Inverse folding.
């Protein structure tokens, strides 16, 4: 996405090349004309002159912006649309499983899209890191948690829940629960999302 944004820098644009925020501003009305854009307004366009933080974006946000980077008849645009469809279908399934045949079909197509992007980006280090992660996902090794990792996750969940219970117990009469939810970091982040 960042490489493509640079390629689309208008002639005589200052600064050159374009940065992502310049591109987003140029497409602001189109981005905000959709539910994804409106729901993620402050991630796309942070307040107070802050730059957008890609680490807060999810796949639907990335695909939404990518769709503005290519002509609707280009192979890249169709690839982006395919990734969006697969993501939406998998995220909205009633069950957390799919058939082996479907998995293989989705994986093959997504690997084709990724390989085209690796060729375009020409960053071997990134390609190796992504390929390694995908191999771990495919063989299941990335889903194996040790007993200590499981205990750590349960402990973190428990302490978080306990902190919430204690805070709710200590709320004084007349204190707004809405205010508490909006200022308590885990809830505030969920509301922002």
């Amino acid at each position: 996405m960042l490489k493509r944004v640079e390629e689309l820098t208008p002639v005589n644009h200052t600064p050159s090349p374009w940065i992502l925020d310049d591109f987003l501003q140029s497409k602001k009305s189109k981005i905000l004309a959709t539910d994804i854009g409106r729901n993620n307004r402050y991630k796309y366009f942070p307040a107070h002159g802050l730059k957008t933080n890609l680490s807060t974006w999810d796949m639907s946000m990335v695909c939404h912006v990518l769709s503005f980077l290519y002509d609707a008849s280009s192979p890249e645009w169709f690839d982006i649309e395919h990734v969006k469809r697969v993501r939406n279908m998998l995220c909205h399934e009633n069950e957390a499983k799919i058939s082996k045949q479907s998995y293989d079909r989705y994986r093959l197509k997504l690997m084709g899209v990724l390989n085209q992007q690796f060729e375009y980006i020409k960053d071997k280090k990134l390609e190796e890191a992504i390929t390694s992660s995908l191999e771990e996902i495919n063989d299941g090794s990335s889903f194996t948690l040790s007993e200590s990792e499981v205990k750590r996750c349960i402990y973190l969940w428990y302490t978080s829940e306990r902190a919430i219970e204690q805070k709710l117990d200590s709320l004084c009469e007349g204190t707004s629960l809405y205010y508490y939810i909006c200022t308590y970091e885990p809830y505030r982040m969920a509301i922002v999302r």
Summary: The chain is about 65% helix and 0% strand. The mean pLDDT is 82.
